[in-house]
Design a protein that fits this description.
- The chain contains 17 helices and 8 strands.
- It is globular and about 50 Å long.
- It has one domain: Metal-dependent hydrolases (TIM Barrel).
- The longest helix is centred in the middle third of the chain and has 19 residues.
- The chain is α/β, with parallel strands linked by helices and 326 residues long.
- An 8-stranded parallel β-sheet has the order 1-2-3-4-5-6-7-8.
- Bound molecules: 6-chloro-9H-purine (ES4) and zinc ion (ZN).
- The site of 6-chloro-9H-purine has 11 residues, from helix 4.
- 6-chloro-9H-purine binds next to helix 4.
Length: 326
Amino acid sequence: NRLVEFANKLPKAELHIHIEGSLEPALMWRLAQKHNITLPFESVEAIEHAYQFEDLQSFLDLYYQGADVLRDEDDFYTLMWSYLCKCHEQKVVHTEIMFDPQTHTARGIDFSIFMEGFKKAIAQAKQEFGMSVYLILSFLRHLSEQSAFDALYQAKPYYEMIKAVGLDSSELGNPPEKFEKVFAEAKSLGFKRVAHAGEEGPPSYIWGAIELLDVHRIDHGVRSSEDLALIEYLRKHEIPLTVCPLSNVKLCVVGSMQEHNILSLLSQGLLVTVNADDPSYFGGYLNENYAAIIENLDISERQVKQLIVNGFRASFLPDAAKQQWI
Ligand code: ES4
Ligand code: ZN
């Protein structure tokens, strides 16, 4: 497919990726052996076979279990380095990566363990590939506000490595207002802000993320199509949506790729971007997400270009660096 080749070859930015969601089954298997952890799977193929989800929660259960094999600094280095090598292969020249500190600190793994591992891999990618890499500290919304504050303060020695805070995990029943105070504190510390909203949750959660959390971007946001006033607001204020097509199909947020509303959102004038979310769980990295929409939707070359340019526009890169890619 000519358009797939076209998208593969262009320099791209990625804005919605969970590093724990880039843990490939083969690496999970190897780390389980290394640490003498018994996985509830018989083989690497059995892990891959288990990746069939009915909703967000059924995925999150496996995703947190998978992350349990990440124990020492070298594990986190290898996880990050593997993802950054994939970026290099796929012409991702800038990436803004979410990580879930509470998933690790809750298991007794100190901030320094994962941050030092990430730091080495990121320095190497900057050096060897000339990539730019930002980190987004993401709070788990199924945990308490106090736990989010703890994560924010434990990160203090690493603030210069962190560009933004985010909000992820189980959306329904954990609305943005639960995290209003911790986002206000993050803002006063100088962090940018993003939040998952309108993936499974209603448009009111997107309004909440905007009005109470003062976010720069909405992660997913596909349910904004249910609220015309919201669409109008997102368009007027150029608030980006980081859409993840393969994720939405895998988690049954949409019935099929053919039914995905990404082009409808784009043609309504929204700043829509394409992203991988949890590539090793959902069937592909950024290029596979482009391939999926190109092969299943009636998309033009101009629209593919627009989505790629939007990735840079919606990024936290300084304007001068954005200009280089737009
Ligand atoms: C996630 Cl797809 C998705 N939604 C919410 N939280 C997440 N954490 C990792 N992937
Ligand atoms: Zn996500």
